[in-house]
Amino acid sequence: MSDFRTVRGFDTLWRPPAGGRKIVPKQPVISAPSKRGGGGGEDKARLARVVQKAPEVMVKITGRTKDGDHLAAHLEYISRKGELDLEQSDGALIHGREAVRELADDWSEVGEGDSRRRANSNMSVSVVLSMPAGTDPNRLKDAVRAFARAEFGDTFPYVFAFHQDAKGEQPHIHLSVRALGVNGERLNPRKADLADWREQFAKELRGRGIQAEATPRRSRGITHKPERTSVRKARERFERTGANEPRVLREARREAEALAHGGAKPQPWDKQMLQRQAEVRSTYQAAARVLAASADPKDKALARDVQAFVKAMPAPVSRKVAMARQIAVDGQRARPASEPKPDRPGPDKGRGRNR
């Protein structure tokens, strides 16, 4: 059997770029080589999940509360004004609007009593964890319970509530973590922490029989960043009413129009994106070659899956370039059929001919 550990690059393929200090050091993504040789079993299993498109977990920091009233309003929101249970870090349940308000008062008292507290210090960090519709809610809640315990333990008190408003809707859990730990440590998650949270959550789900992965967009060939919620809502409102076009959308459209009409050139980061995606594809293709050389039929089958995955990857195009191309296409459609198309230089056009 081929040694899958000879394939290099997976440490960068499945990890996002460094984004600051992590709160707690985690185990490396790459598995240790087996004492009996070979190794790479965890790498190969993850590769299979990725190319077979296991559902990607969503772990998102949705906000931070700044004072007691803000905290109380948030806890009321996630508990639906006390109608839904809030589960605490010790497993106890909080039910009812009055009990929710008491919890907010307790957390506020602790936070305001911190002698090192600054005016802009957080009271709590709000996190949403979700999976696609159809995920078993009980196993999802159990996975979140284990995730929160592993990440925050007895250091940062937390509560969470399960939401699924309608049948078929994406189930999600609101997790609120007190920003001031019991030992005076402050919770200030960075990008690196968020990556670890996604991986830990996916691991807990898999441990409960739910296929899940936590890979960065670029490792799946996705180059567009997701639209921020505030921008998406403003854009949808503009599309409905035609009024108050968001500034970010207006500027993006202006840049795309300039690019579509030859008035601007792709930026250096566009070239960097192309290079990154070329490296991603190259790493997957190297894995496919190693697997294809194996005598194990399962490895050969996985090699074919990897090749199909790379082939199906979307072209690495920035949002601005994609918008510029659409503007150009719309312009072609809008041109009257009788209007002549601009001449394109042929082999002899534009050149001096002296015969």
What proportion of the residues is helical, as a percent range?
40-55%
CATH class of the largest domain: Alpha Beta
Distance between the termini: 68 Å
Rounded to an integer in angstroms, the radius of gyration calculated over CA atoms is 26 Å
Would you report the number of β strands? 6
Q: SSE string, helix = H, strand = E?
A: HHEHEEHEHEEHHHHHH
Structural class: alpha+beta
Mass-distribution shape: globular
As a percent range, the share of strand residues is 5-15%
Provide the low-confidence segments as ranges.
24-39, 349-355
List the helices and strands and how they pair.
Layout: H1 10-13, H2 41-51, E1 58-65, H3 68-78, E2 86-88, E3 93-94, H4 97-112, E4 124-130, H5 137-152, E5 158-163, E6 172-178, H6 191-206, H7 229-241, H8 247-260, H9 268-292, H10 297-312, H11 319-334
Antiparallel strand pairs: 1-4, 2-3, 2-5, 4-6, 5-6
Helix pairs in contact: 3-4, 5-6, 8-11, 9-10
